[in-house]
Amino acid sequence: MIDALTLGQLRTFVAIAEAGGFRAGAARLRRAQSAVSHAVASLEQELGIALFDRDGRRPVLTPAGTALLEDARAVLLKVDTMRARAQGVSQGLELELSVIVDTLFPLPLACAALQAVHARYPSVRVQLQVAPLGGPLDALLEGRCSVAITVGNDLHDPRVKKEPLTTVPIVPVVSSSHRLGASLRARKRLSADDIGEHLQIVLIDPTPLSARRDFNVLSPRTWRVGTQEAKQALIEAGVGWGRLPLWTVETALRDARLLRLVASNLGPAGEAREQAYVAHRRDRVLGPAGRAFREEVLCRV
Length: 301
Fold this sequence. Notes:
Blueprint: H1 7-19, H2 22-29, H3 33-47, E1 52-53, E2 60-61, H4 63-89, E3 96-102, H5 107-120, E4 125-131, H6 135-141, E5 147-151, E6 160-175, H7 179-185, H8 192-196, E7 200-203, E8 222-225, H9 228-236, E9 242-245, H10 246-254, E10 258-260, E11 272-281, H11 288-299
């Protein structure tokens, strides 16, 4: 009977599917492999279908298993969300608030929100980190932060709730000493092909969330860097061109150390706007300090 299904069976099924095998799934759950195998066999018996094809060296989801995997994940997410809400009813003030901010987001805005949180809850320690691309989302999923600020609409996960903040202007720039800079000073009209002939400086995603994917890369020749600071330093040194958030380059643009690149597929007037979000796990209730940070950052944009 379906009523005889247990959450433990569903968690075991999902763990094996995500880990890619019974042994790896057992290690993730910290259970004996025999117990994991028994749980899946019992689940298959209750459902009346085979979830895994065990003929090969590694178990492979059957078509039925693939279809039911998302259902199992949805059930577990609902249960975990209910448990988190129940725990939050009596939850006290957290000892530490961990926040990760997308490297594109204006850091002064996040710091102002944290200053307000500190004024309300001075005993709460704060851990603030900045990470590019999939870093904030990955930290939320792995439980390494309570609240994150993400930028862009390319990466999503149903376990994460995202609330829109402001849009962040992103501008393609190049050093005034670069060959492209010389063309701009000569008022030469540049096409996307002209710009794409030159080396582009691109951020590396420190997570597997965007593996083998490039965002806004025009040039076939690229240098990859791990931080926004390194990217900007290389661009200002004249090594190549790249996209940077406007708030980080306003002074360099004003001083003419950097120049804006304008082409039709680089956004209107050479500017693109990326949506920013404040995000947290749906299945984990924020403590008072986490809620305060969320409220402060929402009201400041």
